[in-house]
Automatic annotation (TrEMBL):
InterPro entries: Beta-barrel_TonB (IPR000531), Beta-barrel_TonB_sf (IPR036942), Plug_dom (IPR012910), Plug_dom_sf (IPR037066), TonB-dep_rcpt-like (IPR039426)
Main location, first listed in the record: membrane
Extent of the signal sequence: none
Protein family according to the UniProt entry: Belongs to the TonB-dependent receptor family.
Protein source organism: Alteraurantiacibacter aquimixticola
Domain TonB-dependent receptor plug: 31-146
Residue ranges of domain TonB-dependent receptor-like beta-barrel in the record: 510-891
Localisation: Cell outer membrane
Keywords: Cell outer membrane, Membrane, Receptor, TonB box, Transmembrane, Transmembrane beta strand, Transport
Protein name per the record: TonB-dependent receptor
GO cellular component, one term: cell outer membrane
Presence of the UniProt keyword Ubl conjugation in the record: no
Membrane topology term: Multi-pass membrane protein
Length: 935
């Protein structure tokens, strides 16, 4: 990997055969790859028996921050829940171009993310990863690199497999069934291959692992003042929510701290209690009754999602002559999955004193208080509570996606002027149909009406149906008892969730591409010149439908239809010129015209020098682009509910719940990147089978498309007094303090730079009665800096094990294959120690003054981790049928994730895992058993 790609070269025993390597459009032997390419063979993938191919690719050190069904269980309003998308260099998934057999594939979302699980896993021959800019060769989006999945198009025979996986805790069971067949026809001129797979996983709706029970969070230090030298933030266990309890907590006024406990099933009325607050900091508190306050809400984000996938793939080809072959292929994939975001909390909610569900005991206390008021003092007519809504199921997403893809094409060769030219062309039509639906989320007006329950003289009813205003009636309204724990009835839940937000979307992509190449355009003094030229036309569009009910405000969802399309025309040329003395030049240029943003040019210039047989040097400089995707251009307004921390004038913060409104921007331009790559490859003659490489990368993105987050908007307005961000904060009518919405929109204002080193070494040799294979990969990121152009907006995420990318990521493996058919592979994968933030200052006392960037904190270190996996396979023959049994264990030592203090804002933070779930293993030890037979 990141080397000469010997695995690719080994695909053929004929030294004259050539294969297409992702880093170039020029056909040449894999061992002569002009750019760093990581090649993963099907043997490596099958030996580790991943539940899906994305899980394996994500273990590569150069792949960081990828989206998985585990990491995106809270992606409700954007419909991305359940997607597996790749992220090279942690530069963003949209900057990684994913290809299937060198061809584009329709995205599974309007943001263009390609779900890796829509590819036929049983037919994957190898995966090629270009860890650097490749836009001039393959077009837009290849800023961070390219991941190309190559299929076994000539598969012959019948192969069937079954795998079962489960954790050591006997949860998250999953089943994978695959069936593949291929045969020649027409005397070998034609070939057909079909493959189908079925995957089912039973999820775990909560995270009740022991390590997730300590209340480990990051909060604003309640003891901090600007002059006492204490850290402004603290990270520790024993922290929970301070602004709600399961059955409701009075958060202000003379009865602050009174909470409503268990509901008596006979009377339907709640008991009363007094919360021991501990030390309070905004939405948090240390100690006290933190465990009770967070009960039910903490850990309510799904540990793993329910998932069902069906995939069908078919391909047929026919060779009319050695100069002409045609093919057609079709695939259908269906995903259906459900995951849960959180047990939804409600804060600062008003309950009228005549609410029918208030315990008489409490009403009597308030009446006594009001009776003792002096002249001019206002009586209590309502209370303000915070509740995690015990009895109302956690909100989540239930998404169905169908991805259909058709490809037809041809390839061949012809001679002109004594030059042999290879050509290929294809047309692709892809469609993604999504049905995005939220579960257990409520319409705000409906729950308000149900909660405001009163007596009508005989029964408890919704006030809106008995007041003097007929315009606000809600027919069939069922009162809901949110006062206490245990009073919510199924009848009330059925009415509450009678309506729900949903959206149907259609994402389409049409691509036509044609390529010509020759390895002998003409000859120089040093040898033949290779040349490739081609063009591509692409149309991407999105449209959909939402029921008008979505235009009523829901807590989550609030779907809007994203509608729009773009057209792209591209032409490129690439050349490989030998210069003599072991030196080669590789260059490419591409002209791209976007229907919305105009024309842009990308290019690549590289040198390869082999001064001696043992050493090869390479260097590449390129200009790459990423065009805005459909969501960034046309988003009609993705609304999501969350909370932010608003600074208070005298110090401290106030947690404010709000609705974020993110809209698209059709004035966006493509972002550009300058990429420098330098490398050396060592293949010593004295040690056959050994290869080592070191590659330096430096990617500098300008005009990056991004938006300032809601919390950043608050900080820039309140801490730095930047009016343009204050203008994006909208308040409740009649208030100057209660935030209603925060408006956000993507713009070309950011820049991002990442640089570091890739290391790889491998050794393969016969040892004793079998074959030994050793392999090691590592990526060391020196910096990954984002600058949003505003004061305090420079952030280096390298070494940030909280929300960034570890400085050192590695994967090492040792395998031994016995002649008897038994093989074992031992894998060590992990990353090094890191921090919460490179700008944070760790201190316990005598701390400097805190500022919005260089926060002081009591603990800034986050430990890295090493996971060990084992994989065993046994090849045997049974009744003339080839078979392989496999057994694998991931996270052999069942290592718990390192606790990471998330916070200090976000009402969903207590619900999420108390770790960095994108880095650490949250499932624990997992087992997989499987059997594969081939005839």
């Amino acid at each position: 990997m990141a080397q000469e790609a010997p695995a690719a070269a080994a695909e053929s025993d004929d030294d004259e055969d050539t294969i297409l390597i992702t880093g170039s459009r020029i056909l040449r032997d894999g061992s002569e790859a002009p750019t760093p390419v990581s090649v993963i063979s099907s043997a490596e993938i099958n030996a580790e028996a991943p539940a899906n191919i994305a899980d394996f690719v994500n273990t590569l050190p150069s792949v960081n921050g990828s989206q998985t069904p585990i990491s995106n269980s809270g992606s409700l309003s954007n419909g991305q829940s359940g997607i597996s998308a790749l992220n090279l260099r942690s530069l963003g998934q949209a900057r990684t171009l994913v290809l299937l057999d060198g061809q584009r594939s329709v995205g599974s979302t309007s943001s263009g993310l390609v779900d890796i699980n829509t590819f036929p896993q049983a037919l994957i021959e190898r995966v090629e990863v270009v860890t650097g800019g490749a836009s001039s060769v393959y077009g837009s989006d290849a800023v961070a690199g390219v991941v190309n999945f190559i299929l076994k198009k000539d598969f012959t025979g019948v192969e069937a497999s079954y795998e079962y996986g489960v954790t050591t805790y006997s949860d998250v069971p999953n089943h994978l069934v695959q069936l593949t067949g291929g045969t020649d026809f027409a005397d070998g001129r034609g070939h057909i291959v079909v493959s189908g797979e079925y995957f089912h996983q039973t999820g775990e709706p909560r995270n009740d692992r022991d390590w997730n029970q300590s209340g480990y969070f990051q909060i604003e230090n309640p003891a901090y003042t600007p002059t006492n030298g204490l850290p402004a933030r603290i990270v520790q266990s024993g922290i929970g929510s301070s602004n709600f309890t399961p059955g409701g907590l009075i958060v202000s006024g003379p009865f602050q701290g009174t909470y409503f406990g268990t509901t008596d099933l006979g009377t339907g009325l709640a008991s009363l209690g007094q919360l021991n607050y501990g030390q309070v900091s905004g939405q948090w508190m240390i100690g006290g009754d933190y465990e009770y306050a967070s009960l039910g809400h903490a850990g309510s984000n799904s540990l793993a999602n329910d998932e069902e996938r069906i995939g069908i793939f078919g391909r047929a080809s026919y060779e009319f002559s050695p100069a002409l072959e045609i093919f057609a292929q079709a695939s259908y994939n269906r995903f259906e999955g459900e995951s849960f975001y959180q047990q939804t909390p409600t804060t600062n909610y008003t309950i009228q004193m005549d609410n029918a569900f208030l315990p008489p005991e409490f009403v009597a206390m308030v009446d006594a208080y009001n009776a003792g008021l002096g002249p001019g003092e206002d009586p209590i007519t309502s209370i303000t509570i915070g509740t995690s809504n015990a009895g109302v199921s956690a909100a989540g997403g239930s998404n169905t996606r169908e991805v259909t893809r058709f490809v037809a094409g041809a390839k061949g060769f012809f001679g002109v002027g004594g030059v042999d030219v290879d050509w290929d062309l294809y047309f692709q039509h892809g469609e993604t149909s999504t049905d995005e639906m939220l579960v257990n989320t409520w319409q705000v007006a409906r729950i308000d009406a149900m909660t405001d329950a009163v007596y009508d003289g005989a029964n408890i009813v919704c006030r809106v149906n008995v007041d003097a205003d007929p315009s606000n009636d809600l027919p069939g309204c069922i009162p809901i008892n949110r006062i206490g724990v245990g009073g919510v009835t199924q009848e009330a839940l059925d009415f509450l969730f009678e309506v729900f937000p949903s959206r149907q979307q259609e994402i389409k992509q049409d691509v036509f591409a044609i390529n010509f190449s020759t390895n002998d355009l003409f000859s120089t003094w040093a040898g033949p010149v290779s040349f490739a030229i081609g063009g591509e036309y692409r149309e991407d569009s999105v449209d959909g439908y939402v029921d008008p009910i979505n235009f009523e405000r829901f807590l989550y969802g609030n779907y809007r239809v994203t509608t729009g399309g773009v057209k792209v025309k591209e032409a490129y040329a690439e050349a490989l010129v030998p210069l003599g003395l072991g030196l080669e030049f590789n260059g490419a240029v591409r002209l791209t015209d976007y229907s919305l943003s105009g024309t842009v040019t990308t290019w690549k210039a590289g040198l390869i020098w082999q001064p001696i047989d043992d050493i090869r040097l390479r260097g590449t400089l390129s200009r790459d682009i990423r065009a805005p995707n459909l969501l960034e251009l046309f988003d009609a307004g993705t609304a999501r509910t969350n909370s932010v921390n608003v600074p208070l004038p005298g110090g401290g913060v106030r947690a404010e719940q709000f609705v974020q409104n993110l809209t698209g921007n059709t004035m966006l331009d493509p972002e550009t990147a300058e990429t420098l790559g330098l490398g050396v490859i060592f293949t010593p003659d004295f040690l056959p089978g050994f290869t080592a490489s070191v590659d330096y990368f430096d990617i500098d993105i300008t005009g990056a498309i991004s938006f300032v987050s809601a919390q950043q908007t608050i900080d820039l307005c309140f801490d730095l007094n930047q009016q343009e961000f204050c203008d994006n904060i909208n308040y409740v009518p009649g208030s100057t303090t209660d935030i209603d919405t925060i408006d956000l929109s993507p713009v070309n204002f950011s820049s991002q730079t990442t640089r570091g080193f890739d290391f790889e070494a491998s050794y393969r040799a016969p040892v004793g009665p079998g074959m030994l294979t050793l392999r090691g990969l590592a990526t060391y990121t020196i910096e990954n800096v984002t600058d949003n152009g505003f004061e305090g907006g420079i952030d280096d995420s390298a070494g940030v094990n909280w929300s960034g990318i570890p400085s050192l990521v590695y994967r090492v493996s040792a395998g031994y294959a016995f002649e008897s058919g038994f093989s074992v592979i031992l894998v060590g994968r992990g990353f090094g120690d890191g921090v919460y933030d490179n700008d944070f200052i760790e201190c316990a006392s005598g701390c400097p003054a805190d500022d919005p960037v260089a926060h002081t904190i009591n603990e800034n270190d986050i430990d890295g981790i090493l996971y060990v996996d084992t994989n065993f396979t046994y090849d045997f023959t049974l009744a003339g049928v080839e078979a392989q049994a496999l057994f694998s264990v991931k996270n052999v030592f069942d290592r718990d994730p390192v606790l990471v203090g998330n916070g200090p804002s976000g009402n969903n933070t207590p619900a999420y895992p108390q770790t960095s779930r994108g880095l650490y293993d949250t499932l624990g030890r997992t087992f997989r058993l499987g059997l594969n037979v081939r005839y």
